[in-house]
Design goal:
7-stranded mixed sheet, binds NADP nicotinamide-adenine-dinucleotide phosphate, Rossmann fold, Quinone Oxidoreductase, Chain A, domain 1, single chain
Length: 338
């Protein structure tokens, strides 16, 4: 089958940084589905994984974490899906990625694709939505009931990126006042169109800007970019007893004492944790994607696709990686059709 992969880390301008390959088609066992891949979206994690692979490998590495496609075959223990089902999922970081014609994935982290979206528009959603849903509703413990959230505020740092474009929509949907950070006119506009009531810039200290808006502190902070650079602003902006969630690691030297005096909670969100450790509740990712499908088909959450490249091949994947490396993408870049 066709695939796109690489043997060692090379600058993205290099023709061999990502190459077209022929590899063996896998066979599903146990709870695995074999999915015919129709579209993939590209994430910063793909770039990080490509850049990290300094040693040349004997077998090619296949990246790609966001897939929309059709179930081709099911393993003997599968009970959630049948051949022919249209699905979408983010997958696992400890298994081969989805940049291949067929792909194996554990059915417990797969959802039925929204009927209202084509494969490309669906592929934009799973990874960023799982991160947002786990971050907002599980780590920050935000209620899904808008009545409970009346008068509460959330600051979303990096509001126009892949994760931010979904997190702002969901936070708005559950009744929070959403303040998003964005640094350019086009990202400010995108964040406002996707649920941010207010925007401030992440190139300046947050609290003076928040005070101008009438919010000297916020109840929740969801940090989707550069937590170390924003740390002083984060601890200053969080309300006493407030909650912070970061989707990126934080240098251990970060000062935590101010959070102690504020009795503030700091939590982490990594959407790979469940598949990586095969946690007993890993099926929650299936449930979250099924919830998302209902929200999308009800018109409450919209796709975040901003750029579509066809077909899925090395040249187009190199273009997508180069854009992600710029750190300035809005929404999601998707590749469709082999
Ligand atoms: N833990 C997890 O499970 C998880 C899941 C997904 C992603 N991640 C990680 O989270 C990060 C964000 O992912 P993503 O897909 O949203 O990225 P992305 O789409 O590449 O984010 C691009 C956005 O980041 C904003 N940005 C750039 N520099 C910033 C800064 N210093 N502070 C705040 N915002 C900044 C830009 O806004 P402007 O153009 O307005 O500056 C741009 O709109 C990545 O590092 C990714 O690897 C973690």
């Amino acid at each position: 089958m066709k695939a796109v992969g690489f043997y060692r880390s090379l600058p993205i301008e290099h023709e061999e940084s990502l190459i077209d390959l022929e590899i063996e088609k896998p066979t599903p066992t146990g709870r695995d589905l074999l999915v015919q891949v129709k579209a993939v979206s590209v994430n910063p994690t793909d770039v990080k994984a490509r850049v990290a692979r300094k040693q040349a490998e004997e077998t090619p590495q296949i990246l790609g974490r966001d897939v929309a496609g059709i179930v081709a075959e099911v393993g003997s223990e599968c009970s959630l899906f049948r051949p022919g089902d249209e699905v979408y999922y983010a997958g696992s970081n400890v298994r081969p990625g989805g940049n291949s014609e067929f792909h194996l994935v554990d059915e417990r982290i797969v959802g039925h694709k929204p009927e209202s979206l084509d494969f490309a528009r669906a592929a934009a959603l799973p990874l960023t939505s799982l991160t947002s849903m786990e971050g907002l509703f599980e780590r920050l413990g935000i209620s899904r009931n808008p009545a409970v959230n009346q008068g509460k505020t959330i600051l979303i740092i990096g509001a126009a990126g892949g994760v931010g474009s979904i997190a702002t929509q969901l936070a708005d949907l559950v009744g929070l006042t959403v303040i998003g950070t964005a640094s350019r006119p086009e990202t400010i506009q995108w964040a406002r169109e996707h649920g941010a009531t207010h925007t401030i810039s992440h190139t300046q200290a947050f609290v003076p800007q928040l005070k101008v808006l009438g919010f000297p502190t916020v109840d929740y902070i969801f940090c989707l970019s550069d937590p170390e650079r924003h740390w002083d602003s984060i601890v200053e902006a969080i309300v006493p007893q407030g909650k912070i969630c970061s989707i990126l690691p934080l240098n251990p030297s970060a000062k935590l004492d101010t959070l102690f005096y504020k009795s503030a909670t700091l939590s982490w969100e990594l959407m790979y944790t469940r598949p990586m450790f095969q946690t007993p509740d890993m099926i929650e990712q299936h449930n979250l994607l099924e919830d998302l499908t209902q929200l999308v088909d009800a018109g409450k959450v919209k796709t975040t696709l901003t750029e579509l490249l066809e077909p899925i091949n090395a040249a187009n994947l190199r273009k997508a990686h180069a854009k992600i490396e710029s750190g300035q993408t809005i929404g999601k870049i998707v590749l469709a059709n082999f």
